[in-house]
Amino acid sequence: QVQLVESGGGLVQPGGSLRLSCAASASIFSIYTMGWFRQAPGKQRELVASATIDGTATYADSVKGRFTISRGRRTVYLQMDSLKPEDTAVYYCNAILQPGAPSDYWGQGTQVTVSS
């Protein structure tokens, strides 16, 4: 069982920055894909960004040029700059241990609110 612990959410004004962090339990040596999803009230959960262990990154069009994902073997970070009110959501860390794994793992979520 893999546990993911997130931190770094909060309230920020439009145009501001936040950095989210996620760490997996120490029993795991490395994780193939780690990423961030978000879910706003009344909307479906959507991919924000993900990165494989070899450094291949994927971004949602809505965050390209503003968000940057980075990671280590068991950690993943999301640097969010130029935040907009529409970025307000609960952000969830996600992990896929190996390519083609039948299941994935989720963190508990951290709230990001962008408001003046």
Please write out the topology.
Elements: E1 4-7, E2 10-12, E3 18-24, E4 33-39, E5 46-52, E6 57-59, E7 67-71, E8 75-80, E9 89-96, E10 105-106, E11 110-114
Parallel strand pairs: 2-11
Antiparallel strand pairs: 1-3, 3-8, 4-5, 4-9, 5-6, 7-8, 9-10, 9-11
Distance between the termini: 40 Å
The value of Rg in angstroms is: 14 Å
Coarse structural class? mainly beta
Q: Oligomeric form of this entry?
A: single chain
Q: Compute the number of strand runs.
A: 11
What's a concise summary of this model?
This protein is mainly β and 116 residues long.
Structure notes:
The protein is mostly beta strands. About 0% of the residues lie in helices and about 50% in strands. It contains no helices and 11 strands. The protein has strands at about 5, 10, 20-25, 35-40, 45-50, 55-60, 65-70, 75-80, 90-95, 105, 110-115. Strands 2, 4, 5, 6, 9, 10 and 11 form a 7-stranded mixed β-sheet that branches. A 4-stranded antiparallel β-sheet has the order 1-3-8-7, with no helix packed on it. β5 and β6 form a beta hairpin. The chain is globular and about 40 Å long. About 30% of the residues are buried.
What features would you highlight for this structure?
single chain, 116 residues, mainly beta, seven-stranded mixed β-sheet, four-stranded antiparallel β-sheet, 49% strand, globular
